Amino acid sequence: MSYLLIQNGKVIANGEIRKGDILIHDTKILDDNFAGEIPVDCEVLDAKGNYVSPGFIDIHVHGGAGYDIMDCTEEAFCEVANIHLKNGTTTIVPTAVTAPMEDIYEMIEVCKKAIDKCPSIYGLHLEGPYLSVNQKGAHNEKLLHAPTTEETKQLLEVGKGIICRMTAACELDNMQEFAQTLKEHGVGLALGHSDATAAQALEGFRWGFSHITHLYSATPSVRKINQVVTAGVIEAAYLDDAVTVELIADGNHATEHGLKLAMKIKGTDNVALVTDAIRPAGLDVTESYLGAKLPENRVIVEDGVAKLPDRSSFAGSVATMARVLKKSKTHYHLELVDAIKMMTETPAKILGATDIGKIQKGYRADIVLFDEDCNISNVIKNGRIVETA
Question: Given this model, what pLDDT does residue 290 score?
Fold first, then answer.
């Protein structure tokens, strides 16, 4: 049996910041406000007055450290998980970009093996190929298509127990059947890269869509269709109180006022902050790839964000959650407890996870320590201190 005591920290819990010590036993939080006798052979970590937060939960991340999960290797999965873990992400949902179905199936099989080696991997998120051509963003238009009954069946068979979420466009053909089938199999369904009208999106919510992938990015608002002013995905998301949303809080994809509007309408209970990080996250490079290392997947990195070479679209972020934390203060001017909630408790709720996202007795001992300038000093995963250097 092993014990770890975190002393002299400012604990962020239950929407407040308080002084307190945390006692960890093995992989769980034994006491979230410890004041008793220190157990024998207990390791002590002095927080030195730093903030003590639940570990960050990133529900949308493609890559990092020069790797992408579409490399389809266990090494890629683990290196992506590790670079984000060092930056405070103790739970990660690797996200697949649109690719040939054979590559997606291969990636799923590799993830099944990697998840046993990388404890921070929660499950898979498939972003595509069932997306709108009009809202494709950086996805390969040639590979986008509507789902078929047979393809859906095969995808669920291959991905059983590992796919936790899919992003799709609800206006595509066969989408009602697809949505209802995924719901029956316990797979979360998100609306994203969609050109849907508000009416179509609200119908999609009735079918089983329950989340919006990177709100404001490839999720249109009011526009004219055949000279008729029509509301879009954003308005539908705001109209349905049960629908959760995520925003890429890297300082580029989402504006301060857009994020604050989402918080005002949906509440921090229903807004998650994500990175949508791709291969160059955590590196200082000017070129990289979105997905597999193929010429057609080349992207450039400038102004702190990845872009298509012709600069017609962003191509994902190069952020870690450590950067999201800093941007929450310097760019979005959020209250710290609000930012932390949207990086921990709310994404846990979206995943349906009941033992992560809070500093609370019985919860998994996933914890991050950081200073007043949001510089991370320590990361703890499953009760073990992670090497962050």
Answer: 86
Question: How many Cα neighbours within 13 Å face the side chain of 250?
Answer: 26
Q: Estimate the crossing angle of helix 321-330 against helix 336-343, to 10 degrees.
A: 150
**Domain 3-53+360-386 - what CATH class?**
mainly beta
From its phi and psi, is residue 236 left (phi > 0), alpha (psi between -120 and 50) or beta? alpha
**If you write DSSP's letter for every residue of 221-255 in order, what string do you get?**
-SEEETTEEE-BHHHHHHH-TT-EEEEE-SSSSS-
Q: Supply 73's token pair.
A: 């290797």
- Which of 156, 201, 220, 157 lies closest to 183, judged by CA? 156
Q: What is the 3-state secondary structure (H, E, C) of 13-73?
A: ECCEEEEEEEEEECCEEEECCCCCCCCCCCEEEECCCCEEEECEEEEEECEECCEEHHHCC
Task: Please tell me the predicted confidence (pLDDT) of residue 1.
Answer: 59
Residue 325 is predicted with a pLDDT of: 98
d(CA 134, CA 132): 5
Domain at 56-188+268-351: CATH code? 3.20.20.140
Q: Considering only CA atoms, which of 157, 83, 69, 84 is closest in space to residue 114? A: 69
- Rounded to an integer, what distance in angstroms lies between the CA atom of residue 162 and that of residue 94? 11
Return the pLDDT at 81: 98
Question: Domain locations in the chain?
Answer: 3-53+360-386, 56-188+268-351
Residues 41-98 pLDDT 10s: 999 999 999 999 999 999 999 999 999 999 999 999 999 999 999 999 999 999 999 9
Give me the residues of the chain with pLDDT under 70, please: 1, 389
Query: Would you say the CATH fold of 56-188+268-351 matches that of 3-53+360-386?
Result: no
Task: Give the per-residue pLDDT at 195.
Answer: 97
Are 100 and 376 contacting, i.e. CB atoms less than 8 angstroms apart? Answer: no
What is the model's pLDDT at position 387? Answer: 85
Number of Cβ within 10 Å of residue 389's Cβ equals: 3
